[in-house]
């Protein structure tokens, strides 16, 4: 192949880029190499041109890249660390890009973490892969014509969201194609566990970033017909004949360390109405069943063991919600966690009536087992707005907790029978038609420990979780696009 790739590499210092540049020059594909520098006195590197940028994440930098993208393909490297290309990696990327008529291709790769090289597979992009932190790896291989076209439509200047904006606009013009081959090696600089990384989008320090990301995503949804205007169905809280106003539902399996605290925090609740606690014990074998039974003298407790053996957390929720004693409002509490005080259930039920919503999402605090606050502290999801929350929900990876539902709506929608992401799926589905209410008081303490579902995931499990959530977003986005088409045809 001829020299058909222009490469754009972040410049931190001479030593950092020399090895990367040397590897690029060894290929037969590279036409020009540009170094993106935020410094005024960057050292010259033979055979490279230095471009002054504020940052790689700003729109001005992306426009400078587009101006110089005069080869068939454009490679953007996004890390300030050494890149080592695999044998004929660029040739392979160019071939797949041509064969698939792709707007952009990206690949599985290796990471060097703490001096050890590990495989780092990534996942396949879908139309619902709207997370701004979707992991493409650090090598983005664009068709230059598509890149230029996408950049020409970037009419908002972003300080932080430009790469995200470029990706979204490129996806409107062609496919972003995953190459399931290990084509390069990068040095991983973020060594935090998965359970620490997942809260980046609610970090107050990132608020300005999140505002820009939401703006870019909202514009994208409008462009593809997936944006929903803030018109919601009104709720009349008179469906069904409920003996209880509310039910707290706890699905549990083998949580002997935590279940008693969870139960006590529910039974201590003070309300102006009748409520109960439905615990669905999914065939525990560690003494959890017996621990729950020790509370059976309290008439508010309903202890259920499924006849089925194929239920995940979502399936246990379905069992609880469809129980004849389930209240008008079904309120979540995980078996690991505890309510913050005796007023939580009352506050949640009040919010349904005050905000006329089919679902309520609260605020929680991360703690250790001593109930001491740990990082990242209070998770309040204040990025949610009544007007645009349901659109922005397609970009972020969760809606917060605790969650509560108007039972007739939940019985109609039903909970996916999974043990991860089922709550997120419900939030997206319900918000398509109904307003979601918010409470910004801390309602429960989320106790972080090693057996939490997302405390520390390996790459395979993390990819599985992210793929499923992307599928949830894809299904929801398709439904919203269809809803808008139907509405416009009337």
Textual characterization of the structure:
The structure is a single chain. The chain is of the alpha/beta class. The chain has 2 domains: 5-191, Spore Coat Polysaccharide Biosynthesis Protein SpsA, Chain A (Alpha-Beta Complex), CATH 3.90.550.10; 246-482, Spore Coat Polysaccharide Biosynthesis Protein SpsA, Chain A. Helix content is 33%, strand content 24%. It has helices spanning 14-26, 59-67, 89-99, 144-152, 162-171, 194-197, 207-224, 259-267, 288-293, 313-321, 344-355, 389-392, 407-413, 422-431, 459-489; strands spanning 5-11, 30-37, 48-52, 73-77, 83-85, 104-113, 116-120, 139-143, 176-187, 246-252, 275-281, 301-304, 329-332, 338-339, 359-367, 373-379, 403-406, 436-447. The strands form 2 sheets. Strands 1, 2, 3, 4, 5, 6, 7, 8 and 9 form a 9-stranded mixed beta sheet that branches. Strands 10, 11, 12, 13, 14, 15, 16, 17 and 18 form a 9-stranded mixed beta sheet that branches. A hairpin with a 2-residue loop joins strand 6 (104-113) and strand 7. Helix 14 runs parallel beside helix 15. The longest helix is centred in the C-terminal third of the chain and has 31 residues, at 459-489. It starts with a strand and ends with a helix. The model is unreliable at 194-201 (pLDDT under 50).
């Amino acid at each position: 192949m001829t020299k058909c790739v222009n490469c754009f590499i972040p410049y931190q210092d001479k030593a950092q880029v020399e090895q990367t540049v040397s590897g690029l020059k060894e290929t037969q594909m590279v036409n020009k190499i540009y170094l993106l520098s935020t410094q005024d006195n960057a050292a010259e590197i033979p055979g490279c041109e230095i471009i002054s940028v504020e940052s790689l994440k700003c729109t001005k930098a992306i426009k400078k890249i587009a101006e110089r993208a005069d080869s068939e393909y454009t490679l953007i490297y996004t890390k300030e660390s050494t890149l080592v290309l695999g044998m004929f990696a660029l040739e392979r990327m160019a071939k797949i890009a041509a064969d698939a008529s792709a707007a952009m291709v990206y690949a599985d790769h290796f990471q060097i973490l703490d001096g050890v090289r590990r495989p780092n597979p990534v996942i396949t992009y879908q139309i619902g892969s709207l997370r701004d932190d979707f992991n493409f790896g650090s090598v983005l291989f664009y068709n230059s014509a598509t890149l230029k076209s996408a950049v020409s439509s970037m009419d908002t200047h972003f300080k932080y969201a430009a790469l995200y904006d470029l990706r979204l606009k490129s996806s409107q013009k062609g496919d972003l194609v995953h190459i399931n081959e290990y084509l390069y090696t990068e040095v991983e600089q973020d060594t935090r566990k998965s359970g620490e990384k997942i809260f980046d989008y609610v970090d107050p320090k990132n608020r300005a970033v999140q505002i820009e990301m939401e703006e870019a995503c909202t514009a994208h949804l409008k462009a593809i017909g997936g944006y929903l205007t803030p018109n919601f169905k009104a709720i009349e809280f008179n469906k069904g004949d409920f003996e209880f106003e509310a039910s707290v539902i706890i699905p549990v399996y083998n949580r002997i360390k935590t279940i008693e605290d969870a139960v006590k925090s529910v039974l201590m609740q003070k309300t102006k109405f009748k409520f109960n606690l439905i615990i669905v014990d999914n065939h525990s074998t560690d003494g959890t069943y017996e621990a729950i039974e020790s509370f059976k003298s309290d008439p508010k407790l309903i202890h259920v063991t499924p006849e089925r053996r194929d239920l995940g957390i979502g399936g246990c929720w379905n069992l609880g919600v469809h129980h004849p004693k389930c209240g008008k409002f079904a309120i979540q509490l995980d078996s690991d966690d505890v309510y913050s005080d005796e007023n939580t259930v009352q506050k949640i039920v009040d919010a349904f009536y005050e905000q006329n919503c089919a679902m309520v999402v609260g605020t929680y605090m991360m703690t250790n087992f001593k109930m001491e606050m740990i990082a990242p502290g209070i998770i309040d999801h204040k990025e949610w707005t009544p007007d645009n929350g349901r659109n922005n929900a397609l970009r972020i990876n969760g809606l917060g907790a605790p969650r509560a539902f108007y039972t007739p709506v939940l019985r109609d929608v039903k909970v996916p029978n999974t043990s991860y992401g089922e709550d997120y799926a419900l939030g997206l589905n319900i918000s398509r038609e109904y307003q979601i209410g918010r409470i910004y008081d801390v309602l429960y303490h989320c106790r972080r420990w090693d057996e939490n579902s997302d405390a520390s995931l390996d790459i395979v499990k993390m990819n599985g979780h992210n793929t499923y959530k992307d599928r949830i977003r894809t299904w929801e986005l398709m439904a919203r696009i269809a809803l808008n088409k139907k509405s416009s045809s009337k």
